[in-house]
Amino acid sequence: MSGYSVTEPSSTQKWVAGVLVIGYALVTLLPLMWILATGFKSSADSIAYPPKVTFQPTLEGYVNLFTTQTRQTPEYLEAHPPQTWYEEIVHGKGMVIAGPSRFGERFMNSVIIGFGSTFLSVFLGTLAAYAFSRYRIPLKDDLLFFILSTRMMPPIAVAIPIFLMFRNLGLSDTHTGMILLYTAVNLSLSVWLLKGFIDEIPREYEEAALIDGYTRFQAFIKVVLPQAATGIAATAIFCLIFAWNEYAFAVLLTSGTAQTAPPFIPTIIGNGGQDWPAVAAGATLFLLPVMVFTILLRKHLLRGITFGAVRK
Amino acid sequence: MSGTTIDHVARATPPKVARRIKGLSDRAIAWIFVAPTIFLLLAINIFPLLWTIYLSFTNYRANRPNAEVSWIGTRNYERILGDADIWLTMQATAHFLFWTLVLQVLIGFTLAWLINQKFKGNDLWTTIIVLPMMLSPAVVGNFWTFLYQPQIGLFNYVVAFLTGADPTSFSMIGDVSLAPWAIVIVDTWMWTPFVMLICLAGLRSIPDSIYEAAECDRASKWRQFWTITVPMVLPFLMLAVLFRGIENFKMFDLVVQLTGGGPGNTTTLTSIDLKREAFEKWRTGYSSAYAIILFVTVFGLASIYVKALNKVKER
d(Cα B61, Cα B280) in Å, to the nearest integer? Predict the structure, then answer.
């Protein structure tokens, strides 16, 4: 790519383009930075006018996020001096910590359901994608279209019978139920993406392996899987992000034991109105892993988004 | 996931298991590989769909599981299609769909074109622009209600700063005329990157040789843009519109957290309305019919659109 090319933009053009894109990126980033900042504000600073850009950072929001608190009389507070830094923060407001909040549990539910369903949908998706890619399957195109069309249903529409089905099977508000549901929703994407990746692996590799005395199954494991590893990883990340972010099914089908973080975070309230620093703290902890992932794995992810879309 | 791990697993597979599998024919392997997927999709997608179709002809209510269920024919469908409120909901959805698509196509294509000027560090900035679409719409939507607060909200403050208006004089999610735009803005913020990425893939698929040939023919840059760039990216752009269109027709999480459908019914999109009917009023039969109508609408529109898309591709 050296030397003069008519298709290479001029340096002024590049400079202007760069400034415009970076400007847009900074504006886009603003709400996210605001979430991060609000998590470290005190309640008063979070609702100050004009909105505060510089402030004294505090962990109040995070402490509120992880604990439940009750108001106590000044005499009681004096008799029970704070033992730890977080108790001290709570004491400052005339409260004591009554116990842990539900946030930890909800976050763990998100982790369990997210990873469980991702593993299942990538595992099943790889098998199905391999079969669709390599074998002659009757009605193949119809089956593939059927798999894709399952994504066109609005989640609420699917939720009605799923709700009834789960109620009858005792799967309502269980991890198993949610894992199965998210697996089914993700399978269509996973099969389509992985089929694309496996299609790109030359068949000759497996044929060579078969001639060397491998069985079909061994050839699949030893030749195809390592070649598809990047694609499998990219697919896994998409499935994980979907399951991690999903809200509609979670809010309709779970209420307690299996509730994930997205329906929970908006319900965090303090004394009198929404406790924005605590909400922002929860949002930060919930969104940050995805952001870090996205930036670290940008090459594969960005290719994955367009790859999957363009192929469909 | 590295190749070596998988090699290790493969080597660790006991020969006994491997020998047993050796006996399987290709055909058997194909079916064993596809069956679990098909089974799961049948159980969790198709069976529920059939059940919804059945329920749509009954007066079943999920909050009264023991009440007698009677077959009422197409009465649910007649009631829905004759209901003026549903048409208002459809109008709100159409407004949301139209404006999000227009804005996302315009901004997304422009950004993709700018990024394709290959300035230094463009991939990092692309990633930063992509961040919003990777995040949980419910959590982000909820936080936007904070940004939209009159006076203390950052959005109002910035708008007031730029226009000189009083930040307390308008409430994006409390005002009947502004709320439909509030949801358009957040959706555009969140999903423009998707359109941008697909356009970028389209721009990068155009071989340099076409531009070089145009240059030899002394075509102006302007002409090259309209006769090469735009037509070559169009199929990609149309695909992006299809995906965003389907997604936004189904839109629920972001908007329900932002406005909850209000004020009044100004932002009650079809999914939100459906949720109320199904899970608040518990009119299960009625909402099943509603769901079927929505599904048929999406499916029908998408099929027509795909036909148009294929025609553009053939050209």
Answer: 11
